[in-house]
Write a structure and sequence with these properties.
The complex is a heterodimer. By secondary structure, chain A is mainly beta. In chain B, the strands form two sheets. In chain B, strands 2, 4, 5, 6, 9, 10 and 11 form a seven-stranded mixed beta sheet that branches. In chain B, strands 1-3-8-7 form a four-stranded antiparallel beta sheet, with no helix packed on it. Classes of the chains: A mainly beta, B mainly beta.
Chain lengths: 109, 120
């Protein structure tokens, strides 16, 4: 079956670095997406990885290892506004997104 | 670019009535649109996938006669919740897929802002 696993909740301190892990199993693979979702709002796109390695985009970076079925989202210099849920989604061979349950990130001052 | 709108943003209706939610891609053509439902503190649940000009494909457990989807054009899809009941109260989100996204990779989904439905 298809499955996306990520931690339910994480807590980090303002200004620090946090890594949110995601493991995936999909039927075929066409990339791994990370989305940010604030409470009561729709998800917004953060990153897309289809090749192995690290993609850096400002304070956010995303990593993919296809052989391990593993990805992580790295958030640096955390700000209070980064408090949100982070959704990991794998795209299968039919170009459908398989969603994880999301990781709620709590930022403390 | 790649903006998706939804209307209405929120709606309150009485049990037994029907509600229509519109999803529009404003600056690109979306051959495929997706409808999701999200209950509080839960992840997105895909309800159905609709392709322009053809019948929607519903996920297992989603009643197609209750959740009517019409994708009449490349920029508009509608979801009608028929005979709504309190258990249908949820956050409904649509997304539209651009074959080649703005960032240059294929099949990225752009999300609308969501519609919060409350059935009393």
């Amino acid at each position: 079956g298809q499955n996306i696993d990520q931690p339910t909740e994480m807590t980090a301190t303002e200004g620090a670095i946090v890594q949110i892990n995601c493991t995936y199993q999909t039927s075929g693979f066409n990339g791994l997406f990370w989305y940010q979702q604030h409470a009561g709002e729709a998800p917004t796109f953060l990153s897309y990885n289809v090749l192995d390695g690290l993609e850096e985009k400002g304070r956010f970076s995303s990593f993919l290892s296809r052989s391990k079925g593993y990805s992580y989202l790295l958030l640096k210099e955390l700000q209070m506004k980064d408090s949100a849920s982070y959704l990991c989604a794998g795209m299968d061979s039919n170009y459908q997104l398989i969603w994880g349950a999301g990781t709620k990130l709590i930022i403390k001052p | 670019g790649a903006v998706v709108s939804q209307h209405p943003s929120w709606v309150i209706c009485k049990s037994g009535t029907s509600v229509k939610i519109e999803c529009r891609s404003l600056d690109f053509q979306a051959t495929t649109m997706f409808w999701y439902r999200q209950f509080p503190k839960q992840s997105l649940m895909l309800m159905a996938t609709s392709n322009e000009g053809s019948k929607a494909t519903y996920e297992q457990g989603v009643e197609k006669d209750k959740f009517l989807i019409n994708h009449a054009s490349l920029t508009l899809s509608t979801l009608t919740v028929t005979s709504a009941h309190p258990e249908d109260s949820s956050f409904y989100i649509c997304s539209a897929r651009d074959v080649v996204g703005l960032a240059g990779f294929s099949y990225e989904q752009y999300f609308g802002p969501g519609t919060r439905l409350t059935v009393t």
